[in-house]
Specification:
alpha/beta, 47% helix, 9 helices, 230 residues, single chain, 6-stranded parallel β-sheet
Amino acid sequence: MPKQNKVEHVFFDLDHTLWDFDKNSALTFDFIFKKHNVNTGLTDFLSHYEPINLKYWKLYRDEKVTKDDLRYNRLKETFDAMQYTINDDLINNLSNDYLNHLTSFNHVFDGTIELLDYLKNKYKLHIITNGFKEAQNNKLKGSKLDKYFVTVTSAEVAGVKKPNPKIFNYALDLANAGFENSIMIGDNYEADILGALDIGLDAICFNYHKAEIKPEIKVVNHLLDIKKYL
């Protein structure tokens, strides 16, 4: 596979790409459920919550719900689907505690540190994330990934979310980078990959979801496979 020799800047998504969101989220729910005496099985909860959470993040990306809507409704809808009786005050307390404790757990995907150590002296590394600014900064610091990145662009700072072209343009300007010498790496086919490709920015999909991806898209199933391209 040809290496991208012209590349000088590598842009990464954070959640589900480097920072193991699913694992850290599960640990957080386990902690706050015990704290608030929520007596529901964690595995059962997560089986309902994860697709609902993805749905609300897509609505959030599409500007169809607010941040507050996302935080409350993803929990409310999950408990409703489980037919678990819970009041609004407890849902709001869980929502707040989830955000407060999420960055207490900082597992990263296998190969993350080795990959970043490999890339750091060859390229300038950057983050583009739809996550909330403060939480993302805490994740980067807590997982000790912050030292690798020159710039961090969040949707809150850019004012728009991936796949909106404005966030990619904002990140490129912040990094003093161009389409021709940059590449985007992320897990979300719509937000990260199509969002980048649609504006002429090359992209690599980290397909840990094992989704079916069009053959013309650069795909890796393990982060260290990115070395084939960079």
